[in-house]
Amino acid sequence: MQRCIPDSARGLRHPQTIVLNQTTPHSNIWTLFQFFAIVESMNNQDITLAHVSVSEMDNNCYLLCIGKEALLIDAADNPQALLDLAAENNVSITAVLSTHSHWDHLRALPQILEQTGAKHFAPQPDAADINAPVDVLLTDSDVLPFAGHHFPVHILHGHTTGGAAIAVPIGENMHLFVGDSLFPGGIGKTKNHQDFIQLLDDVSTKLFQKYPDDTVVHPGHGKSTTLGIERPHLEEWRARGW
């Protein structure tokens, strides 16, 4: 069954078939702080990933489960489904990350925070437009601390004023949770060409230049992809302007 990504989230106007091309060279530039944060995370308790899609807009909600705790990424809708997902994985939601300020990713947020007492993380540029109090404001190159792990934070400008992506080591791969900033076949929807260039530049320098091709990308809607699948198309996206 094909899953639809709403036009409000992504910049694509037509479906595309993405072909896995030969891996292209990339720059693996790290700050020491981010590097040791990831090494620390990889040496700590295992992280498992659970996922549910909610709402008529196919919003992805992710649970990062560590021991008996879980970090929920985007309380988009259907709070009971999110609580049920936690129960099925024998964890309690103790933290929530809102990746950006668009309403379709926040519909369950007030109720989830009230029912769980979870700590709420959100990107500083978008925080004023989020419909619930934020406990921890995230800025670029921060780390998000959770259950003994520290996940690098990247602020991506363009789809909104500034959304957050986090990098999480799960199993043998790095995983990026990117909100609506990156999808299979293109970046997220922007209001104008200046915002498009800003978002493409941010995605290029903060994600593609820092992480290897086998990094898994988890978007806010629809299916996951990898940086390796998308990397050969960056200049194509820039040339087409969306």
Would you mind describing this structure in some detail?
The protein has 242 residues and is α/β, with parallel strands linked by helices. The protein has one domain (32-240): 4-Layer Sandwich (Metallo-beta-lactamase, Chain A). It has helices at 32-43, 79-88, 109-116, 193-208, 227-230, 234-240; strands spanning 48-54, 59-66, 69-73, 92-97, 119-123, 136-138, 143-146, 149-156, 163-170, 173-177, 182-183, 186-187, 216-218, 225-226. Strands 1-2-3-4-5-6 form a six-stranded mixed beta sheet, covered by helices on one side. A hairpin with a 2-residue loop joins strand 9 and strand 10 (173-177). The radius of gyration is 17 Å and the shape is globular.
Describe the sheet with the most strands: 6 strands, mixed
Radius of gyration: 17 Å
Report strand order across the widest sheet. Answer: 1-2-3-4-5-6
Topology order in helix (H) and strand (E) letters = HEEEHEHEEEEEEEEHEEHH
Number of helices: 6
Total number of strands:
14
CATH top level assignment = Alpha Beta
Protein name: MBL fold metallo-hydrolase
Organism: Corynebacterium pseudotuberculosis (strain C231)
Strand and helix layout:
Elements: H1 32-43, E1 48-54, E2 59-66, E3 69-73, H2 79-88, E4 92-97, H3 109-116, E5 119-123, E6 136-138, E7 143-146, E8 149-156, E9 163-170, E10 173-177, E11 182-183, E12 186-187, H4 193-208, E13 216-218, E14 225-226, H5 227-230, H6 234-240
Parallel strand pairs: 3-4, 4-5, 5-6, 10-13
Antiparallel strand pairs: 1-2, 2-3, 7-8, 8-9, 9-10, 11-12, 13-14
